[in-house]
Specification:
With about 170 residues, the protein is mostly helical. The chain is globular.
Length: about 170
């Protein structure tokens, strides 16, 4: 069993670092990308909501997830409130079982993240369908799969500041 990861996560995370990660993810949403690339790109903001809710639950909770979701709604120029609703529900689900989630290995966490990212997409699809939009198709659920595949990389990248403090 790998005991390094939980010990590293007990160290305090600077608020500036959390803010920087969310700023970078929101700026990624603003990048002009080739047509069709959004069909496979994961929701980086949603991934960060999940990451910080799992690893820093006292700093990132339901209210912060809702506020960041509103910012994502403004940036994406989509249905106002859909990201906020999806992110706050997923943050709530994470916080229900946060103590168990933080102790899972990376493979198990990846499966949970896949389910939570699917949940985010499903909530947003339901919100759109309530307003009369057509179902976007099954390709709409490809980004959560890509996000789950990138979860181990995101987890390792977020630990880099801890490793640089050791030296």
């Amino acid at each position: 069993m790998n005991y390094e990861r939980p010990q590293e996560l007990l160290k305090p995370v600077k608020r500036r670092f959390i803010l920087l990660t969310f700023t970078a993810a929101l700026l990624l949403e603003l990048l002009p990308l080739p047509l069709g690339s959004n069909r496979w790109l994961p929701d980086f903001v949603g991934m960060l909501i999940l990451y910080w809710s799992i690893n820093q639950p006292r700093r990132i909770g339901i209210g912060i997830a809702f506020g960041i979701g509103l910012l994502a709604d403004v940036i994406s120029t989509g249905l106002f409130g859909q990201h906020a609703l999806a992110y706050s529900i997923c943050a709530y689900l994470v916080l229900l079982r946060q103590r168990q989630l933080v102790m899972l290995n990376l493979g198990q966490q990846t499966l949970v993240v896949l389910l939570l990212m699917m949940n985010i997409q499903l909530i947003m699809a339901l919100a759109r369908s309530i307003t009369g939009s057509a179902f976007p198709g099954l390709s709409y659920f490809l980004p959560p799969l890509m996000g789950a595949l990138l979860w181990p990389l995101l987890s390792k990248l977020m630990l880099l500041p801890y490793h640089s403090d050791r030296h």
